[in-house]
């Protein structure tokens, strides 16, 4: 196997990046080519993604990427999509999953189809923004094709149409056992079956750059290779685990907390705990729960007009812990808006003192996230029967020393933090596997472990304090 180079386009809910990754025996190195903010825009009361702005940034990134790339892969956040008309034109700007158009829709669909049928078919947790509920709130009369965000960008780059399976698994419309679109759910919901494109897996060859795109960015006949196009699928593929006795926390805007399984868990208990069975690379199942994540901090910073997160986290480390707590998964925290005010009101309602400084608010968020991590880890182990020796915390949150430490203390498990860019690494590794530059998933993970900066946090042994706080909040997994 010789060294090869790949470009990873990785779009998160708050920022996007184009990275170049070199992969070969003993080598896995990322270089950041371009990083850009992802700013949702509200138009006529609806919250949209600026999809053309994002695509423009992707083109700019690829234009400045080194020559000699073997291929490019694209991943993004899940569930959101663009609709094309019969001529292939985009029907409106994709709507942000935090938009209020789905208010009440999940409840209606659940009542009509039954929770049991939905969960047994798709294995997906009940989140109000899942594609299935967005589609139920959408006029589809002029739609010919639905493309999830990474598939939409791949379509603009190559002209090809398809749906990558890991991301399709987050729609709520994929059959969790067969891995095909659920004709039954589509039919019961009265959705047009024509809009769902053919499915493919990570590693598939999507196509070659359209001639006009190639001319614009100067990369000749560059290929686009399918990766785990759901960012969480790519992140979990790059978890540096050595055995299967691990849990992961993919920590960014969301904290995705769970284990990797061979088969879905579709029990009533699992449904009630709102655990999801999302598709991973190599047919693995990402059995996890969405915990509200760093969104709570990002939205607080936006409200304050404050940029110094490291400074605030350092100050939060000096604030006494477990004094102010929230349930981070309360749906009241989902939409954009004044986060510190919502946190203060929630503390008051729960009988805790309100945070009176920014550092106290940040401490409240981090303690509460650590408690939610603890609960989800315990539930994942219990509901799946998987024993957990270590927790791999990857993504932007792995930079947050205090959060890593609190998560180890709260869960009573060692936490290995890093890599920060797990998603881009997973993206690059899926391409490298398809091009023969690295072996299977285990070999890819060993390469991450051998080459990336990781930090280990041992639990402090005061888990009892956390158990007490979790019980007080009703968060005991
Ligand atoms: C993380 C993520 C989660 C998904 C949420 C919404 O970036 O992809 O996995 O639940 O965003 O799409």
From TrEMBL:
Domain Carbohydrate kinase FGGY N-terminal: 69-236
InterPro entries registered for this protein in UniProt: ATPase_NBD, FGGY_C, FGGY_Carb_Kinase, FGGY_N, Rhamnulokinase
Molecular function terms, GO-annotated: ATP binding; rhamnulokinase activity
Gene3D superfamilies per UniProt: 3.30.420.40
UniProt KW keywords: ATP-binding, Carbohydrate metabolism, Kinase, Nucleotide-binding, Rhamnose metabolism, Transferase, Xylose metabolism
Similarity remark: Belongs to the FGGY kinase family.
Keyword Protein transport among record annotations: no
Gene Ontology BP term (one): rhamnose catabolic process
Domain Carbohydrate kinase FGGY C-terminal: residue ranges: 247-434
Organism listed in the record: Actinomadura coerulea
Record protein name field: Rhamnulokinase
Main EC class the enzyme belongs to: transferase
EC number: 2.7.1.5
């Amino acid at each position: 196997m010789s060294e090869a180079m790949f470009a990873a386009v990785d779009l998160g809910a708050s920022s996007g990046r184009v990275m170049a990754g070199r992969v070969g025996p003993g080598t896995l190195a990322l270089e950041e080519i371009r990083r850009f903010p992802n700013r949702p825009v509200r138009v006529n009361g609806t919250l949209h993604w600026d999809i053309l702005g994002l695509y423009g940034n992707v083109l700019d990134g690829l234009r400045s990427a080194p020559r000699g790339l073997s291929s490019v892969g694209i991943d993004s956040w899940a569930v959101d999509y663009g609709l094309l008309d019969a001529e292939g034109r985009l029907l409106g700007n994709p709507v942000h999953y935090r938009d209020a158009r789905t208010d009440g829709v999940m409840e209606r669909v659940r009542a009509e189809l039954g929770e049991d049928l939905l969960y047994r078919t798709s294995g997906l947790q009940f989140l109000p923004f899942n594609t299935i509920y967005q589609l139920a709130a959408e006029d589809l009369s002029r739609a010919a094709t639905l493309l999830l965000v990474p598939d939409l960008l791949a379509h603009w780059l190559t002209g090809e149409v398809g749906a990558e399976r890991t991301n399709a698994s987050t729609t709520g419309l994929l059959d969790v056992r067969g891995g095909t679109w659920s004709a039954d759910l589509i039919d019961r919901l009265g959705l047009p079956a024509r809009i769902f494109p053919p499915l493919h897996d990570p590693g598939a060859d999507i196509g070659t750059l359209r001639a006009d795109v190639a001319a614009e960015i100067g990369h000749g006949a560059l290929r686009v290779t399918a990766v785990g196009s759901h960012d969480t699928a790519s992140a979990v593929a790059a978890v540096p685990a050595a055995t299967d006795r691990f849990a992961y926390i993919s920590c960014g805007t969301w904290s995705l907390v769970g284990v990797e399984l061979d088969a879905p868990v579709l029990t009533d208990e699992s449904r009630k705990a709102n655990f999801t069975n999302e598709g991973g690379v190599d047919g693995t199942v990402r059995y996890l729960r969405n915990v509200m994540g760093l969104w709570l901090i990002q939205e607080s910073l936006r409200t304050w007009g404050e940029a110094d997160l490291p400074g605030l986290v350092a100050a939060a480390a000096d604030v006494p812990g477990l004094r102010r707590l929230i349930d981070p998964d309360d749906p009241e925290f989902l939409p954009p808006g004044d986060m510190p005010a919502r946190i203060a009101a929630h503390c008051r309602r729960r009988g805790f003192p309100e945070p009176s400084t920014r550092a106290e608010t940040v401490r409240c968020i981090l303690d509460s996230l650590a408690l939610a991590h603890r609960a989800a880890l315990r539930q994942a182990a219990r509901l799946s029967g998987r024993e957990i020796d270590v927790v791999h915390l990857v993504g932007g949150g792995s930079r947050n020393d205090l959060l890593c430490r609190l998560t180890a203390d709260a869960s009573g498990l060692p936490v290995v933090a890093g890599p920060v860019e797990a998603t881009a690494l997973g993206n690059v590794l899926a391409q490298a596997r398809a091009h023969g530059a690295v072996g299977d998933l285990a070999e890819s993970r060993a390469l991450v472990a051998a080459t990336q900066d990781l930090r280990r946090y041992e639990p402090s042994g005061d888990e009892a304090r956390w158990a007490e706080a979790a019980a007080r909040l009703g968060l005991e997994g």
